Amino acid sequence: MLAMPDVTGFGLAWQAIHGQAGRVCGFVVRITPPMPDKTPFASMSFDIRFMRKGKESALIFLPEPYHAPIGLIIAHWGNFERHFDICLQALIAGEVADGGTREVQLSRQFKRRRALFKEICTGWLAGWRPEEAKSLCQIADIAGDLSWKRNLIAHGQYAYTIPPQSSLATNCRASDTESGKEFSFDADTLVKLYHDISHLTADLVSTFKVFGHVEGDFHTMPDAEVLRTYRETVHPWNPNPKKRPSPVDGGGPADG
Fold first, then answer.
1. Could you tell me where the beta strands, DSSP code E, fall in 60-146?
2. Cβ neighbours, 10 Å, residue 179
């Protein structure tokens, strides 16, 4: 059960009450406004507490506003791969239990694990769960498109262009010097990428749960509930001006 959200100046404080007696877990859902369509400055920041005399700091040419979205891309992809591997191992075990003789040493490369995942779905699962097998193959295909972008974000070389007589970082990109692949991005591209990975993870687990069991904790929240809260509660970015905090005291809906 979700309690009615309390509005703060930074987001919505939600209290989730689980089915266990007396156990209350508090967490915050932050509904943020769209990132401004503004080219970031070419800048770097350092924390003076961790600077050490005699050391040198390696530099990454990555504007500061992009640091948090990139961290979320890495975190969401790790969550996706963890659940992907759980589902893959369950598929392998199910095929063997059904009389299959597959002996597999799982590759560290996601590309190969993804190919094995599709092979089992089309060769074994499709025989008795055709719709789920088709959906899982589609999820694997989407994952293939997202994975190369994540890989460049995680392992690529960052660069940007500073136009003449400017301090702006334009054409931000991550590239692989060996393959020549390049992924250009701005703030919206990065934010959409981690949302796409988040949605894909939920699709994977919900599809698999139709016929199997996914071990471990897994939590989701309906997008519709977040959107409802965004539209119906008082916060600074509500599209309805009447549901924004008063500019006078910040405590209630704006007039008008």
1. none
2. 11
